[in-house]
Backbone:
């Protein structure tokens, strides 16, 4: 495969002689401009492919540096929603031809790489093929364009999927088209923090690509860490998230193994040791990153059977949602929160989705409310009739309320008032992240359990050991 990547000097072990070194800003000894200088001088524009959560933040970071941006998204609806932001230096389009006619200096690829909880590469291939064909069709004097892939990749994607596409377009990667990976990390809601102060790992298919990427990424990020090559850069993103996946799964396996113990408290105390993070049992992970990390690593590995910890993490994580649904099999159930995480409107792989599927399978009536989502948005994801119509009535009639994301709204009205009303019928509140764990008292007939509290899952049938058995 490496014939289609520009060759570079290597040591006896095959390591790049230039790897790991940060580069000076003039990356071309022939005196030609670089992709970065094309951008900052305004001679050429950048193009961001995929204008979702990640792509749009890249657009904003580029705009902050006065770099001309063309944003492309396959979704006409998404583009229409972003049109108001257009102005000098920013155009958004769902017209593929428009995105390909301009001679672009730097392409940022931010398309989804997950579908139905599995790694997915169609959108990436679609976009990369378009870029390669357009580059191949264009006369190529001067600076090659640079592609920076920000999406999370299955390890091996560059070698197995992207390289053949470049070859077919008649391109030598690293010579005719620079290619680098700079997978995204995110602060999410950490106020005052942004892309600039988030350490970032990047790697290129060759030295010239990595150097070109370094220059461009330096415009928006203060601390860059260069990976030896593209495979290492692909792996880092998955590995860092799989660490978290394993630790979260261990918390869940502990609560399943010791159902009669308050595992929230045990893990809080364990977390007082200086080198241990604080985790807690939950309904399972959600979002684009953590639940998929182990799947990406398993999919790309030469020997997936050696990664048994990761396969177990995937299995336990998936099972948690079913266990929650089975434990509340008496309806009606009200699920508070569609988002997978508090304060953000992202439902990707949210535990709510899987729990809703399981409740449907079990024939248990349920409805969902999320202050960040309109009823139509909830029903588009979960089906017609799944959105709560009247919150007060739904909670009064519910046998169980599941609180899934830790939206701050759930601590206030109307939620707290409705959950603490005197009741005629029993209510079980199962709280994923302990949003209401500090509430001092609950009315008669209301049982509150945080995930990880003793016997929080009714299906966990192991009873506490009898006192006489303890020494
Ligand atoms: N959201 C996160 O928290 C996060 C964090 C780190 C990494 N990532 C990774 O970043 C990538 C993008 O994630 P996101 O959260 O921005 O996704 P998203 O779903 O918010 O946005 C993706 C956008 O790409 C568009 N799209 C789909 N197919 C396309 C195509 N063929 N051409 C052009 N546009 C297309 C979609 O319409 C959508 O607007 C994924 O690989 C994800 O794993 C996400």
Residues:
């Amino acid at each position: 495969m490496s014939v289609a990547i520009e060759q570079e000097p290597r040591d006896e072990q095959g390591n790049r002689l230039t790897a790991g070194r940060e580069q000076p800003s003039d990356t071309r000894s022939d005196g030609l401009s670089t992709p970065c200088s094309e951008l900052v001088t305004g001679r050429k524009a950048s193009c961001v492919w995929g204008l979702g959560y990640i792509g749009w933040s890249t657009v904003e970071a580029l705009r902050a540096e006065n770099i001309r941006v063309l944003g492309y998204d396959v979704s006409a609806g998404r583009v229409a929603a972003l049109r108001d932001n257009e102005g000098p230096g920013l155009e958004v389009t769902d017209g593929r031809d428009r995105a390909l006619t301009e001679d672009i200096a730097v392409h940022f690829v931010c398309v989804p790489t997950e579908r139905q909880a599995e790694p997915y590469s169609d959108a990436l291939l679609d976009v990369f093929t378009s870029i390669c064909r357009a580059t191949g069709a264009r006369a190529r004097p001067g600076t090659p364009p640079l592609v920076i892939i920000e999406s999370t990749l299955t390890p091996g994607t560059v070698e197995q999927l992207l390289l053949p596409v470049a070859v077919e377009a008649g391109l030598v990667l690293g010579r005719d088209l620079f290619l680098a990976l700079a997978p995204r990390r995110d602060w999410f809601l950490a106020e005052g923090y942004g892309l600039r102060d988030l350490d970032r790992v990047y790697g290129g298919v060759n030295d010239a690509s990595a150097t070109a990427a370094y220059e461009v990424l330096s415009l928006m990020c203060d601390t860059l860490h260069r990976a030896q090559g593209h495979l290492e850069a692909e792996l880092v993103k998955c590995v860092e998230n799989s660490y978290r996946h394993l630790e979260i799964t261990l918390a869940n396996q502990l609560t399943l193994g010791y159902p009669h113990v308050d595992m929230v408290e045990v893990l809080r105390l364990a977390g007082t040791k200086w080198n241990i993070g604080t985790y807690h049992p939950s309904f399972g992970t959600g979002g684009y990153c953590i639940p998929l990390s182990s799947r990406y690593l398993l999919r790309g590995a030469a020997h997936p059977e050696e990664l048994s910890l990761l396969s177990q993490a995937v299995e336990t994580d998936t099972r948690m949602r079913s266990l929650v649904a089975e434990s509340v099999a008496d309806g009606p159930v009200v699920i508070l929160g569609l988002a997978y995480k508090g304060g953000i409107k992202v439902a990707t792989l949210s535990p709510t989705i899987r729990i809703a599927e399981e409740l449907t399978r079990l024939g248990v009536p349920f409805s969902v409310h999320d202050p960040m989502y309109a009823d139509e948005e909830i029903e588009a994801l979960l089906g017609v009739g799944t959105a709560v119509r009247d919150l007060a009535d739904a909670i009064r009639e519910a046998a169980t309320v599941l609180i899934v994301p830790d939206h701050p709204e759930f601590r206030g009205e109307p939620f707290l008032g409705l959950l603490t009303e005197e009741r005629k019928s029993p209510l079980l509140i199962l709280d994923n992240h302990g949003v209401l764990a500090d509430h001092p008292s609950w009315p008669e007939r209301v049982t509150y359990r945080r995930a990880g509290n003793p016997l929080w899952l009714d299906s966990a049938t192991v009873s506490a050991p009898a006192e006489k058995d303890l020494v």
